[in-house]
């Protein structure tokens, strides 16, 4: 297992601002700090690193002969689990994205409920026309698949707006105050017919691939809205297109797709009542994301130097952050 203590060489593969760099120089005055791009760091810098903060191309990690710890800048770690040796500590950024991504989910949901995407299109055509009934979040049932940091933050916000919250978790069945009901994934088929919105904040694991397919779309209300900010592979794309174009559900909002980037000629772009954003809900477009992920690294850095267990250690079997710290 990796040792802890002094860091000789730190590689930052993050889009840090100057204020973040100044903070690191003050915090680590005797450490050589290398800066690379997020997923764009030269292989020679990866090779020299003792600690990596951020995300490098997973295949480059095998070059890092002195590597002891990787603090990812992402919550998702699925690409890194097979690439990172067992003797290297792997921690993720769980807790660094909940606020901004939950806001993105809420924005998409309200936009679809109120048909604002349709009115925006009408506006461009100079069309003053009422487009029929709309939906409300107040009194609606939100089924949240994945009640971690992101799903939980959204559930809190939706609860304050009057929604009834049903959560689904893989484990840890302690029900938060803002959650009205809590179940495991085995109950999803009986819960889908109750849902006015289905919010997906699932990581990429073998168990989450194709969770929502044609059969499960058929279980949803025609007024149901699907939002996916987890991984594109959790929804069968062709089944989503069919559900939208045939009116089997009200609409959908996705910040993830499969593949990414989504090709310009992909039929998903032309599906009815669909809002697509290019994986930006938790990207570096928000300064708050950088600040929150930086805070996670600095907290773990303190623990590293003291020889204490790190937070957000990735469970290599599940791909989730362990909850034992």
Describe the structure.
α3 (98-113) crosses α5. The chain is elongated and about 65 Å long. β6 (141-145), α5 (149-160) and β7 (164-168) form a beta-alpha-beta unit. It has helices at 18-27, 43-48, 98-113, 116-124, 149-160, 188-191, 214-217, 237-245, 287-306; strands at residues 9-13, 32-35, 51-54, 69-71, 89-91, 141-145, 164-168, 181-183, 197-200, 225-228, 251-254, 274-276. The protein is built from 9 helices and 12 strands. The mean pLDDT is 95. Helix content is 28%, strand content 14%. The longest helix has 20 residues, at 287-306.
What is the secondary structure topology, with strand pairs?
Elements: E1 9-13, H1 18-27, E2 32-35, H2 43-48, E3 51-54, E4 69-71, E5 89-91, H3 98-113, H4 116-124, E6 141-145, H5 149-160, E7 164-168, E8 181-183, H6 188-191, E9 197-200, H7 214-217, E10 225-228, H8 237-245, E11 251-254, E12 274-276, H9 287-306
Parallel strand pairs: 1-2, 1-3, 3-4, 4-5, 6-7, 6-9, 7-8, 9-10, 10-11, 11-12
Helix percentage range: 25-40%
Number of helices: 9
Q: Can you summarize the main beta sheet? A: 7 strands, parallel
Query: Which class best fits the helix and strand makeup?
Result: alpha/beta
| Proportion of beta-strand residues | 5-15%
In angstroms, what is the radius of gyration? Answer: 21 Å
Strand order of the largest sheet: 8-7-6-9-10-11-12
Key words describing this protein structure:
alpha/beta, five-stranded parallel sheet, 9 helices, elongated, single chain, seven-stranded parallel sheet, about 325 residues, about 30% helix
């Amino acid at each position: 297992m990796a040792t802890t203590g002094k860091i000789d060489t730190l590689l930052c593969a993050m889009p840090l601002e100057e204020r973040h760099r100044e903070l690191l120089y003050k915090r680590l005055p005797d450490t050589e700090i290398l800066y690379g791009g997020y997923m764009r760091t030269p292989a020679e810098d990866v090779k020299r690193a003792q600690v990596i903060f951020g995300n490098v191309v997973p295949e480059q990690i095998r070059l890092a002969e002195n590597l002891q710890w990787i603090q990812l800048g992402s919550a998702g770690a699925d690409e890194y689990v097979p690439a990172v040796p067992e003797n290297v500590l792997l921690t993720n950024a769980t807790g660094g994205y909940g606020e901004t991504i939950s806001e993105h989910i809420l924005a998409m949901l309200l936009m679809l409920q109120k048909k604002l995407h349709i009115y925006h299109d009408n506006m461009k055509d100079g069309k003053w026309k009422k487009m029929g009934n709309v939906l409300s979040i107040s009194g609606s049932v939100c089924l949240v698949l994945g009640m971690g940091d992101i799903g939980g933050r959204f559930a809190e916000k939706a609860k304050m707006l009057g929604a009834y919250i049903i959560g689904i978790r893989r484990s840890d069945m302690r029900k938060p105050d803002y959650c009205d009901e809590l179940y495991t994934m085995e109950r999803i088929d009986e819960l889908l017919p109750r849902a006015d919105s289905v919010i997906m904040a699932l990581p990429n694991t073998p168990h989450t691939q194709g969770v929502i397919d044609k059969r499960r779309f058929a279980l949803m209300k025609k007024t149901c809205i699907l939002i996916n900010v987890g991984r594109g592979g959790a929804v069968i794309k062709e089944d989503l297109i069919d559900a939208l174009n045939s009116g089997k559900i009200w609409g959908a909002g996705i910040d993830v797709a499969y593949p990414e980037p989504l090709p310009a000629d992909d039929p998903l772009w032309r599906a009815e009542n669909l809002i697509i954003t290019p994986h930006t809900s938790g990207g570096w477009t928000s300064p708050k994301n950088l600040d929150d992920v930086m805070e996670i690294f600095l907290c773990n850095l303190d623990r590293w130097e003291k020889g204490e267990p790190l937070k957000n250690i990735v469970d290599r079997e599940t791909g989730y952050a362990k909850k034992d710290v």
